[in-house]
Amino acid sequence: MNNEIKDKFGRRLRYLRISVTDRCNFRCKYCMPNNNFEMMECADILRYEDILFASEVFASLGVNRIRITGGEPLIRKDLCQFLDKLTKIDNIQEVMLTTNGSLLNKYAHDLYEAGVKRLNISLDSLNHERNKYITGVDKTEDILAGIKKAAEIGFKPIKVNSVIIRDFNDDEIIQFAELSAKYNIICRFIEFMPIGNSENWNENNIVYGSEILERLSAFEPQEMEKDINSGPAVNYKLNNGGIIGIITPISKHFCSECDKLRITADGKIRPCLLSDNEIDIKKALQSRDKDLLIKQIMQALNIKHDEHNVNVGDTNHDFKRTMSKIGG
Ligand code: SAM
Ligand code: SF4
């Protein structure tokens, strides 16, 4: 019988997001600063064995879903072998992956064989030039080929996540709605958060969820019932058969539903994406000290706030880590 643990606001812990690397083959402008960006020391990055130990302990406390992220997880060596072990941990019902999609064509088959069935793929534009501008490389075709391959193999659902930035890709919202129907995928739009590369972030560039929905009015979006797999998104069925999701970390917080903790690639529990409070669990992991780890997990739950404090009109925050270092 597994234990179930809750934070002090009664939210049960069910979900863990683990960053396996801070490295990435992209340099998204909103995520990584282009200059003077220090990577973590290799020695500081958790070994797969440490992550598996952590996952077993979390699973014994009632966590049943794990998302692997980064940096770009698919650039870490032997990821699929690691995932094969992760998916077999008792009580873990689902292991999901968030990827930039550039290497998906190559690894989709091995991922599926390893037991990963659900993917989130980040793609901010369908335009080559724009992708090159935002990511530093143009991998549009590779990403689309990866999405196609993943759909053929049977990953379901496939979610494509786009950060919507005013005057950059907000004119593509309609195209993503069409892509959803064409590829039978869920296209989700995320509000641009003031975390990552603050040089490139500007409040005027945020397109809030309500505006995104308005721009899709021709598709007569019908709100769908929330389920365990929708995560923080509110999903809408469109009249073209597609499904879109809107994720509003700033304009409509979803903190009351938060059932997760994050582990950074260098072994810190980060209870909230939008708060720099962290607890270092590396020692507990490396010494396989289950009691200490459980104590630290409880501490992490205890320092979770009821809500983060990034709001419309009050977005002037400066977080210490970039998204690539936290694991978005
Ligand atoms: N490399 C993988 C990818 O891009 O999907 C996984 C890690 S990436 C940090 C995870 C997600 O964080 C991506 O969808 C990315 O668009 C999102 N992200 C990064 N910085 C962001 C920001 N400032 N605001 C909103 N989303 C952001
Ligand atoms: Fe890399 Fe993902 Fe960050 Fe882009 S958003 S730089 S793909 S980690």
TrEMBL record:
The segment(s) forming the Radical SAM core domain are 8-232
A GO molecular-function annotation: metal ion binding
Enzyme class (EC, first level) = lyase
Q: Which reaction does it catalyse?
A: GTP + AH2 + S-adenosyl-L-methionine = (8S)-3',8-cyclo-7,8-dihydroguanosine 5'-triphosphate + 5'-deoxyadenosine + L-methionine + A + H(+)
Cofactor binding: number and manner:
Binds 2 [4Fe-4S] clusters. Binds 1 [4Fe-4S] cluster coordinated with 3 cysteines and an exchangeable S-adenosyl-L-methionine and 1 [4Fe-4S] cluster coordinated with 3 cysteines and the GTP-derived substrate.
Which HAMAP family does this chain map to? Answer: MoaA_B
> What this chain does, per the record?
Catalyzes the cyclization of GTP to (8S)-3',8-cyclo-7,8-dihydroguanosine 5'-triphosphate.
Oligomeric form and interacting partners: Monomer and homodimer.
Please report the name of this protein according to its UniProt entry: GTP 3',8-cyclase
Q: Which organism is it from?
A: Candidatus Mucispirillum faecigallinarum
